[in-house]
Amino acid sequence: MISLRSVPARWRRLDTAVRRPALWQRLDVTARDLSFGLLLFAVSLIPAFHRHGTQLGTVPGRPFDAAAALAAALECLPLALRRRWPALCLVLVSLGFAVDQFRGYHLVGGAALPIAVMSAGAHLARRRRVTVFALTAAYVVLAFVLHLHGTGEPADEFVTFYLALALVWGAGAWLRATRAAETERRRRLADDTRTAERARIARELHDIVTHHVTAMVVQAEAARYLTAAPDRLDHTLSTVTDTGRRAINDLRHLLDLLDPGHGAEARAPAVGRIRTLVEQTRRAGQSVDFTEQGTPAESTGSAELVAYRVVQEALTNALKYAHGSRTSVLVRHGGREIAVEVGTDGSGRRAEVPKGSGRGLAGLRERVGVLGGEFSAEPGADGGFVVRARIPSGSAS
Predict the structure, then answer these.
(1) Engineering a disulfide at 80: which of 34, 206, 256, 261 sits with its beta carbon 3.0 to 4.6 angstroms away?
(2) Where are the beta strands (DSSP E) in the chain?
(3) Is 356 helix (H, G, I), strand (E, B) or coil?
(4) Residue 279 pLDDT grade (very low, low, confident, very high; cuts 50, 70, 90)
(5) Contact yes or no for 57/18 (Cβ under 8 A)
(6) Of 56, 140, 130, 54, which is closest to residue 87 (Cα–Cα)?
(7) Dihedral sign, Cα of residue 118, residue 120, residue 123, residue 126
(8) Is the pLDDT of residue 325 over 70?
(9) Cβ–Cβ under 8 Å, residues 76 and 37
(10) Local structure of residue 302 (DSSP, 8 states)
């Protein structure tokens, strides 16, 4: 174990400097805002800065006294509330500013007023219009009183100062609108992410469950007619059992991936497993011709999984809607893409399975489209059905 004393002092100072912003962020927002108010209050008490603050009107100045310290405290210290209770902060700072100007102290603490106005514009959530009208009315009264107690010079500076405060309020309102827009953008992004993830999970469940369950239904349907042939019946029931086990394993792996604490790694079915997929479909009673051209690339990214899912969905539909018809599967590996074509000749009969949800082909079209490929599913010339996909693999040759 390393002792703190064994660490050089310069490294300890560096570590402290690195951690200081994190400690500052952990402080309550009121404490952080109070620090600035205390700093402004301290500057207002320094004699060199007396009568060097905001001067509104022509009220004669007077020396710094106890009332000036009270006015400075009333101007500066409420800044601690500027984000948590912006309306209260604005009221207190405005009272301090009125005393400051009416008494002719002209304190540096008067700079707290535009800060309070901006904070109210940025953080005040309710009665914003009422606050603006009330602040305007109070300012008109203050300007009228200051003008009466002044030397009678033109009052255009009151209008200028009010316009400056209005600009500051507008800046705060813009910050509020920007913050609200960013919050809404993040919320929509989170919603879109959740929706996309749910759609992805639904596609995976559809691909896994539909294929295996369809094969089991077709095999169980065929078992009805094999009661007179015990050997064939036993083989068919064994195939149903094996298919069910594969479905359970695939579902278990998918659930493991959805569990963030499980630590399972993603497992993408390789294109080489398409041959196994074809064999499973043959055991379900479908005649399938499989042709593979070219050499699979060592790494094709997501194209492997998409090609596998295209063949899986097409063979599932062949079992559903063209059971017994001759089916062909062609997989062609190119330097930059994988081409898949699955077709039936329309000579078989439709299996008695539940009607599809329409999610399969639409999901395939979306999968292929995301990778920038092309997908089509249409009736063939001989009455069958043909599914074609061209999937960019992203591997250069």
Answers:
(1) 34
(2) 288-293, 327-333, 337-344, 374-379, 385-392
(3) coil
(4) confident
(5) no
(6) 130
(7) negative
(8) yes
(9) yes
(10) T
Q: Is the pLDDT of residue 105 over 60?
A: yes
Q: What is the rounded distance in angstroms from the CA atom of residue 116 to the CA atom of residue 99?
A: 16
Q: What share of the chain is helix, strand, coil (3-state, %, to 5)?
A: 65, 10, 25
Residue type, position 214, single letter: T
What is the per-residue pLDDT across 183-217, written as a single tens digit (0 to 9) for each?
888 888 888 877 777 777 777 776 666 666 776 76
Residue 93: name the closest of 114, 107, 108 by CA.
114
Which amino acid does the sequence have at 134? A
pLDDT greater at residue 271 or residue 111? 111
Residue 49, pLDDT > 60, answer yes
Taking the whole predicted model, whether its pTM rises above 0.70 is answered as: no
pLDDT tens-digit readout, 335-370? 788 999 998 887 665 544 334 555 677 778 888 888
Report which residue type is found at 245: R
Encoded tokens for 328: 């062909």
Torsion angle defined by CA atoms of residues 346, 347, 348 and 349, in that order, rounded to the nearest 10 degrees: 80
Radius of gyration of the chain (CA): 38
Strands across the sheet containing 337-344:
288-293, 327-333, 337-344, 385-392, 374-379
Q: What are phi and psi of 350, to 5 degrees?
A: -85, 135
